[in-house]
Design brief:
The complex is a heterotrimer. Chain A is built from 13 helices and 15 strands. In chain A, strands 3-2-4-5-7-6-12 form a 7-stranded mixed beta sheet, with helices on both faces. In chain A, strand 6, helix 7 and strand 7 form a beta-alpha-beta unit. In chain A, helix 3 runs parallel beside helix 5. Chain B is mainly beta. Chain B contains 2 helices and 4 strands; from the N terminus they run βαββαβ. Chain C is globular. Classes of the chains: A alpha/beta, B mainly beta, C alpha/beta. Chains A and C meet through strand 8 and helix 10 of A and helix 1 and strand 2 of C.
């Protein structure tokens, strides 16, 4: 174990170096550019043996990964925002072909208007593509998640996204504890797929046409693999805890044991929410935070357990789903709570926040906890779908 | 799980399919008898044939086998009856007929 | 949390304010602190105002907050022309200090600070860097001033660490190490506090 300090992007590149995968296909896009940049240097310096394929687009980057993975290679890439959007059709090809590609996603807003800063619209947009999605609060977590990625993905034969917040963690230098190279190599192991195109003496065809008579069975198999991946995520987390002392689950519960008011959210802002909850606890308010680590598969059982009995819950989305009724995390979290008995079912509200890099501070969370307390007091939700940190809030809305 | 494609059919359950719909054998298209689609059948008249072999590369279904430089009878398991072979034959050695 | 020191850097794209911010994080890390160093990004252009931030605290869990800093303990202004256009003392603690790269005295600079009552420090980082490094690279002297004023790191330990990392980085150019070390020391001596 080595104490160091580095940015989130460097932490991912460093984890990649320790793993030394076979193929990287990548195209630069802010704020993930530094990842292939650092990695190219490792290659130039002879520190890794990876075949780096410099492509002309993200569409080709993902195609490279698909080809390499089908051929039997451990394949990786990194991207953000429009780059991820440009990979869209191939994401589904990777997932349905059951190719365990590992992609570092540095979350950035999707264009319209153009913006380089953080939100989750890119990876939330492709949440239904059949990829496992794991999110990080800080640099330590993105490093740890990356090291757990391949043991999860390769076992389940599902591709995986390891997400972190653009600039907020990708470009922030923080303390980090790194594992030794040999520890990482032993933990991640060699990639030995049963079937691959370059396997001598075993002909293989990948990606056949799936007529209606087969398509749905193939999707069902993907869906079952996604459900099963939950068990593997815990297995790998257990092994990782043994190795590093750092324990992960599907979600992280912070001060939730006796919480009356909870905030559910994803990513770097969870750290800020925790600081707000700590301060409120000192003032006697029973505040808690639930951080989603794994969004796909969706941790509905864990959320039921964590939120059951809480008086009021704010589910915070860093992406606008334009459902007219709140973001995707809200919709799925609220759906998960439907089965909880009425006596234990919390009042739930959707807060969209942090779009395009809009900053979120402790005082933002203070206001939300205040809202939750008022909602619990009133015994009903006044306004189910709100945007926080926006000028004018809801006052411009006319009845 | 290494499942032969021959054991997979439209009655197979989702868990009986291969992961990612992978196919673990070569040339599985041989098993698909496209000859069943045929309406007109190419009839080969060996006596007219000069063994120029022009019909062979023109056949879109690779259904004209060649052995030792000599074409053999059309592979009717796979011939779809498109008639291209009859069209390109300059010697009337192939005619399309209802059989 | 309680012992976290928060610092805000103001500079212009290309002047190295972000680099200085990351160097401060590096130096604080070397003396065993929990650190954050992060820039605020926009459409980057040379000369456009930029902001960068540090959170530094003693060991332990560190600070989990991931937002910009609105109530800093210290503000460092790498380019004094920013005083005209940016409200650099916004939210700055009166218990803290502002350090401005300027030839002027603290009293003169204070006049431009909209009534800020805390400590005002100046250091002529431009001249120092020209004398020691041959170019206007104000971030090295500003880093030294930040360490001296904020006391987030022990001054001598900082100089030792910097010398070590510079020797490592510029192994083949000992004159660069020498110049940078002189810049750091001169800045600490010439810093004016008012």
């Amino acid at each position: 174990m080595k104490r160091d300090r580095m940015s989130g992007n460097e932490a991912v590149a460093f984890a990649m170096k320790q793993i030394d995968p076979d193929v990287m296909g990548a195209f630069p896009i802010t704020p993930s550019t530094e990842i292939p940049q650092y990695y190219s240097k490792y290659i130039a310096d002879g520190e890794v043996h990876t075949e780096f394929v410099a492509v002309e687009s993200e569409h080709s980057a993902m195609s490279t990964c698909i080809g390499a993975s089908a051929a039997g290679a451990r394949a990786i890439t990194a991207t953000s925002s429009a780059g991820l959007a440009y990979m869209w059709e191939l994401l589904y090809v990777a997932a349905s072909s059951r190719l365990p590609i590992t992609m570092a996603v540095v979350n950035r807003a999707l264009t319209g208007p153009i913006n380089i800063n953080n939100d989750h619209s890119d990876s939330m947009g492709c949440r239904d593509a059949g990829w496992i999605q794991i999110y990080a609060e800080n640099n330590q977590e993105v490093y740890d998640n990356y090291i757990q990625a391949m043991p999860i993905a390769e076992h389940c034969r599902l591709p995986i996204m390891i997400c972190q917040d653009g600039f907020i963690t990708s470009h922030a230098v923080e303390n980090i504890e790194l594992l030794e190279d040999d520890q990482v190599r032993a933990f991640v192991g060699d990639y030995e797929p049963d079937h691959y195109l370059l396997k001598k003496g075993e002909p293989l065809a990948v990606g056949p046409y799936g007529i209606s008579a087969y398509y749905m069975e193939i999707k069902k198999a993907q869906a079952e693999a996604m459900k099963d991946s939950r068990r593997r995520i815990y297995e790998v987390a257990d092994a990782f805890a043994e190795l590093s002392g750092r324990r992960y689950g599907m979600i992280e519960e912070y001060m939730m044991d006796d919480a009356e008011f909870a905030i559910v959210l994803i990513g770097s802002s969870a750290g800020t929410a925790k600081a707000a909850a700590r301060q409120l606890r000192d003032a006697g308010v029973k505040a808690g935070v639930v951080k989603i680590r794994v969004f796909r598969p969706f941790p509905w059982e864990e959320l039921q357990a964590a939120l059951s009995g809480v008086k009021a819950v704010a589910v915070m989305d860093k992406s606008e789903g334009f459902s007219g009724w709140g973001g995707p995390l809200f919709a799925e979290t609220r759906a998960a709570m439907y089965d909880v008995s009425e006596a234990h079912r919390p009042l739930m509200m959707s807060f969209v926040y942090g779009l395009g890099g809009r900053d979120v501070t402790i005082s933002t969370f203070d206001e939300i906890y205040g809202d939750l307390a008022r909602t619990a007091e009133a015994g009903k939700v006044e306004n189910i779908y709100r945007h926080v940190g926006v000028r004018g809030d809801e006052e411009g809305i006319q009845g | 799980m290494r499942e032969s494609m021959m054991n997979i059919n439209e009655q197979s359950k989702w868990y009986e399919l291969t992961p990612g719909a992978e196919i673990y054998e070569p040339a599985t298209s041989r098993e698909v008898k496209t000859g069943e689609w045929r309406v007109l059948t190419p009839v080969f008249h060996n006596d007219q044939c000069k063994q120029c072999l022009l019909c062979v590369p023109f056949c879109p279904d690779v259904s004209i086998p060649v052995e030792d430089g000599v074409r053999l009878e059309t592979d009717l398991d796979h011939c779809k009856g498109c008639g291209i072979c009859a069209k390109v034959c300059s010697f009337g050695a192939i005619t399309m007929e209802e059989v | 949390m309680g012992n976290t020191v928060e610092i805000r850097w103001h500079g212009r794209g290309g002047q190295g304010a972000k680099t200085a911010c990351l160097l401060l994080a590096d130096a604080a890390f070397s003396s065993g602190k929990q650190v954050q160093g992060f820039p605020e990004y926009g459409p980057e252009r040379m000369g456009a105002p930029i902001t960068a931030y540090n959170r530094i605290c003693d060991g332990g869990a560190g600070n989990s907050v991931h937002s910009n800093i609105y109530n800093p303990d210290f503000v460092i202004v790498v380019d004094e022309t920013l005083l005209r256009s940016v409200d650099v003392t916004s939210g700055l603690s009166e218990e803290g200090a502002i350090i401005v790269n300027s030839r002027k005295s603290p009293a003169e600079v204070r006049e431009q600070l909209h009534g800020y009552k805390g400590k005002v420090c100046t250091v002529d980082a431009g001249t120092i860097s020209r004398e020691t490094l041959g170019r206007n690279i104000p971030n090295t002297p500003m880093l030294a001033a930040a360490v001296k004023v904020s006391k987030v790191i022990d001054k001598d330990r900082f100089l030792e660490d910097m010398e070590g990392s510079l020797r490592h980085k510029f192994a083949s150019k000992p004159q660069v190490v020498e110049g940078n070390m002189r810049a750091l020391r001169m800045s600490m001596t010439q810093l004016k506090v008012g």
